[in-house]
Amino acid sequence: NITNPANLTALSPVTAYDVYVRAQCDDDTSLWIGPLSFTTACATFIPPYVQDFTLFEPECWEKADNGDWTEGPQNFGFSSWFSDGYANLGFEGAPKINLFTLGKSDWLVSPIIDATNGGPYQVEFDVAITQFASQIPATMGSDDEVRFLISEDNGASWTTLEIWTSDSLIQEGGQHYVIDLEEYFGQELQFAFWGTEGSIDDIEDVDFFVDNFEVVDGPNALMATVEVLNINCNSDGDG
Fold first, then answer.
1. Closest CA to 157 of 182, 118, 192, 185
2. Which residues, listed in sequence order, are joined to residue 17 by a DSSP beta bridge?
């Protein structure tokens, strides 16, 4: 008495499962067929969402090594983004992309953030740009670019929220960015960092870092109003 297709419920997100099937007629049963193996998709995350990149890749973040920012990410699973110490301090804890020669068009994509309740929110993160394997601030190549992008349609299209180029000057130790998301109030959102070395093989060899990514309440977040009525006496029941 099982319908086809059969729906499996109460599964956990980002979890691998094996499914086996057999027929049962009265007291007779067939051999088990299987396994059919699959991994459930990521659940959406509800703000406040904080990712410090202690582990890389974090849960439900994805990498891709192809696709212009106007097209969206392609060839998931591969990328030049990897873990290193933020601003080349240490050896892990922050995503980094090295921009030196040619050919990169690489993505680091967040999970979906459910901003349909609460907010409006803001997104915050740290950025550092240094010389290769150094803590010294650097200038990017003439047509190097890193963009911070947002999608309102599950990654089908992207809009630039911030861009770093050869004109970008980041102080030693990096810079903290805060971007208001009030324009995107009440939507499911996805974010991405996209880096390219362009078509000119410059001599600049730079490391671009991201760290401490957060989606949290913005300054105009909706607040609850609570009316306080003090109790007169413990036995009065007038609280």
1. 192
2. 38
CB 127 within 8 A of CB 174: yes
Q: How far is CA 116 from CA 67, 69, 88, 102, 182, in A?
A: 29, 25, 37, 40, 12
The span from the CA of 160 to the CA of 3, in Å, is 46
For the full predicted model, state whether its pTM sits above 0.85: no
- Does the N-terminal peptide bond of residue 219 adopt cis geometry, omega within 30 degrees of 0? no
Task: Give me the phi and psi of 184, to 5 degrees please.
Answer: -110, 25
Dist. CA 133–CA 198, nearest whole Å: 21
Please tell me the distance from the alpha carbon of residue 65 to that of residue 42, in angstroms, as a whole number.
21
- Tell me the C-alpha distance between 233 and 5, whole Å: 62
CA–CA distance, 105 with 80 (Å, rounded to integer): 9
pLDDT in tens, 52-73: 999 999 989 999 999 999 999 9
- For the record, the structure tokens of 105 come out as 């068009």
The pLDDT confidence band at residue 224, using thresholds 50, 70 and 90, is: low
Are 41 and 13 contacting, i.e. CB atoms less than 8 angstroms apart? yes
DSSP for residue 182: G
- Exposed e or buried b per residue across 161-172, where buried means at least 16 C-beta atoms within 10 angstroms of its C-beta: bbebebebebee
